[in-house]
Amino acid sequence: MVDKERIEKIIVDEFGDAVTIEEMNPPQAAIRINSEKIVPLFEFIASHPDLKLNYLSTISGVDLGVEAAEIEIVYFVSSIEFKHKLTIKTRIARQGGRIDTISTVLKGANWYEREIWELFGVDFGGHPNLTRFLLPEDWDEGYPMLRDWQGRNFERMPES
Amino acid sequence: MEISTLLRWLGSILFKVVDSLGLPLWVAELLQMISAAAIVLGAGLLVVLFLVWWERKLSGHFQQRFGPMRTGWHGWIQTVVDGVKLLQKEDIIPKTVDRKVFFWAPVLCFSVSYAAFAVIPWGQGLWPTDLNIGILYILAVTTFVVIALLMAGWSSNNKYALLGGMRAAAQIISYEVPLMLSILGVIMLVQSLSMVKIVEAQGGIFGWFIFKQPLGFLIYLVAATAETNRAPFDIPEAEQELVAGFNIEYSGMKFAMFFMAEFLNLFLVAAIATTIFLGGWRGPWLPSWVWFMGKTLFLVFVIIWFKWTYPRLRVDQLMEFCWKVLLPLAFLNLIVSGILFM
Amino acid sequence: MIEPAPAQYTEEFEVNMGPQHPSTHGVLRLLLKMDGEIIKEAEPYIGYLHRAIEKICENRTYNQCLPFLDRVEYVTSMSCEEVFCLATERIAGMEIPERAEYLRVIMLEFNRIASHLIFLGTFSLDLGAITPFLYCLREREDIIDLFEMTSGQRLTYNYIRVGGVAADIPPEFVPLARKFVNMFQDKVDDYEAILTENPIFLARTKDVGIFDKDMCINYGVSGPILRATGVDWDLRRDDPYSVYDRFRFEIPTGKVGDTWDRYMVRVREMRQSNEIIRQALDQLPEGGTRAKVKPAAFKPPAGEIYTRIENSRGELGCHIIADGTTKPYRVKLRGGSFTHTQMIPEIAPGVMIADLVAIFASMDVILPEVDR
User: Fold this and answer.
1) Terminus of chain B with fewer CB atoms < 10 Å: N or C?
2) Interface touch C203/B314, C-beta < 8 Å
3) Is residue C16 part of a domain?
4) Cβ–Cβ below 8 Å for C131 and B160
5) B314 — alpha (psi -120 to 50), left (phi > 0) or beta?
6) C173 pLDDT above the threshold of 70
């Protein structure tokens, strides 16, 4: 078990300016990284002898709204060996955002990224298989998880 | 009371009637043959009706439930109701099937199973015919089932059905070999292929061939379970892999034909085992046909018991078991019994 | 003159296994490229059950979300409620009454047993043994009855709420639960008698579908599948939540990571869950069952958290972002089945179709959770 400060320090020492420590409520070990450094970061934390953060829980996409015009990608990793965990955040543009895939490092990322591609419209560079799988194959109504997405209103009852 | 006495009496009446009408003798013989076939068919269908109900009840009780309960006393009429339902069903023939082969597959399957009943001795003097190659005839005729299943699998134009048909062919042909070899030991002892002669050779309870050929009996039972495509050897219709195997596209009466053939086969292999290993109709006090039915139904019960207890083997394990275990054992049995009883 | 036979020519063929197939456990479609009985390639297609639950939750208040979460994984609905409530309570910094914590543990462990019973039944069914399925459902029925008398529901309970549980247990619950707990170990012995050492069962499961430890970690595999490969990893102990630190229980692990190990880990887990329930019933304190929250106007402060619990299928996670209003800003669910399903292309090539059915059944994937 390595404590929060130590994890963050190891990563900041390695990546310098590209990484900032993220304060979260409730407090958790968390860092924010420049989206271009995401693959080197994962390679580093998965193999560092004191971190061994090689278990990816999930990747979550968060649309920060039309004004912010950014999408946050949140990675949750933990270490089976040391039983500590880390939240990694990065931001990319809302329209035409692009980030490299980490499925080359952690294969489990494949479908999480595919899901974010499908629901948020984030392009993952180098991803082996970016195809629709949750939505219908002929879906053409945009990216439904964006906050301003307006679908057909299925809930409205017919006027009586 | 022996049924054979009744039948013989009916037969003599038939001959008298034909004679008094002044018709030639072959008419009487023909009528006798037809009525014998009809009686066997009727008996076979009755047996199927009973077995379907019985399996459902047994499986229910194995699984701590009741099985059919609503139609009649403990659901005894359930199979009849199901049969009527299947008769009324629309006969669905998918567009892409090979219609002729698709049609004839269930017919062939049912008729060969039925044909094998011609030489089964149901009791003292109660057999349709006593061929001197009886057991050989049964083995030859039932092999046609493979062709029927292959026809069904191939003509359905469905990948699951095709796989099921292929599996069925591979399995039945493989298990035919140890099945025959296990019977061969008994035939060596009796020096005859006639079913009746085999029964007559087993005098007294310790004269039953199960005591002289225990290994042969076990091999026969296992191979026979595989022959009838029942669990744990039901890979041709393995529901969880092939959905329903070769009969996936069949519905209505065509499906019922396969279904009836399956249960006829089940009864048939048990009847053969009874005849060859368990002394056939022989037994004290009770009429002979009661003994025959009792022994056969007990074997059927054992085979049903297998089905509701064991998981299913994989297709390659099934083949391995046949060629690497059963077949050497069958040869061993043959050699040992040959040396012992020479 | 006889023409020479052409050289042997074989052709791969494609089989669509599912979406309607007895052993895809719901609506998974596997496109198999097969060479006879052997699978060359498998590609899973999901999404037949996608109900956009994450999107729906963005437009509902916290307590309104719970019935939807029940439907994410309907075999263990309790754990879906628990993970969402846990995340919300951690953001709000809320203490919940002791009795409610114990009731949650009892319900979660009962639900784990019920889920593993479903696994055991369908697994043996997929191997062709029909009888154990009925035995398993018989015991599950007892558990479902307990849930029904507590929450009024048999499948989607909506029992665990933010701040506690919806209602206290009725007085006859504890005696019935004790009766179940006392009898259950014998019942597991029964299941084991019919399966564990059965030679056909062993032939079908031993050394079939061996998962490599590192591959599993790389894929993010969790729960019994990961433990079957020998990794000692259980979130009840390694990322503690609720009152699990007050109970003594073992974490069963396998050795090889084959199908038999995955079966055995789950069977032993059922026994452990049973012991946890026994301890929880012994220690069950008196008191209230719900912290003071106004259900409609419940507003946690702004915050963000990813919580995870050990569900019967592995890590069940929930990422919630609260923005200080009555509705969550973002709810992201992470289920074990989703992660496990994506392993299929990796493990399927080279196995026989019957083995794929066995392996897939031993992974205990549930499709509503994959699609959400």
Assistant:
1) C
2) yes
3) no
4) no
5) beta
6) yes
